[in-house]
Amino acid sequence: MNTRHRKWSSFALAALSAVVLTACSSGGGSGSSDNYPSKPIVVVAPSGAGGGWDKTARSLTKVLGESKLVEKTMTVENKPGGGGAVFMAEYATQDTKNPYRLFVSSPPILINNLKKEGNTPYGYKDTTPLAQLTKDFGAIVVSVDSKYSDIQSLMADLKADPTKITFAGGSAPGSMDHLISVLPAFKAGIDPKSVKYVSYDGGGEAIAALLGGNADVIGTDISSASEYLKAGKVKVLGITASERLGGDFKDIPTIKESGIDAEFTIWRGVFGPKEMKDNEKAYWAEKLKALNESEAWKKELAANSWEPEFKGSEDFSKFLGEQEVLIKEMLTALGMAK
């Protein structure tokens, strides 16, 4: 073999080795994609401990692990800040190819991306929506001794003089409680900017303001109002569901029943990184569907007073696009859209 031929053979072998090594190490250090998952998985709750996202993440990992649906270790990581905006900035830029880090979220992933103040340039389109797991609905709540017993009388007074009625919620202006509070007014033809809204640091403080006479009405989610309803401390004038709920809520009318087309689902779901591979998406499609159908998950839902609603990746993505349109419309009417 002459010198020239030996050099060419060495070059070809080196090039082939580089291709093999590159193929073996692809996936951003996430392990081989073919045997996914091959290491522990983290599910992030973009909040502190104890809130809805945290409870969802812990219930999800507990049931997936205990039922052996996922055999790799699953842990929960809390990443609070900006109602999820701080985490999204990190996730959408640093974890785009990391299928070992998932997260749970709800409508704030849309709201934070669309509002003018305190927003984030990152939203659900910077992720892979894997599945919706639960649903809740907005509720318009008054104290038990309030003069209001139906949404229509409240809207009539609000239309006559919005300065006389104070709404409260457990989140900042432009966030979910605010949007729930003004949705009926907006859909009833009342300028949502005229609705007097006071924000409190959490739903508990908003309820306390209502019961203490510092607010006339609160916008919240029906599950948060449940214990106060059972205790006879509040009345729920209407919910943002398309039809009446069962159980403790069977006598509560939907806002739509009252002639105001105000529907809004407070969902919770699971998301992965934007650049997930097909087999990684297929893995979670199978596991999350099996989770939804398991008795252990049904018991977990009941224990947390969560309503089940499962949507796979494609249907979930379509729904998110539809809800994004409504949220943008409302934020625009409030003068809060970016």
From TrEMBL:
The keyword Flavoprotein does not apply. Keywords: Signal. The keyword Signal applies. Pfam families: TctC. Belongs to the UPF0065 (bug) family. It comes from the Bacteria. Residues 1-23 form the signal peptide. This is Transporter. The lineage of its organism: Bacteria, Bacillati, Bacillota, Bacilli, Bacillales.
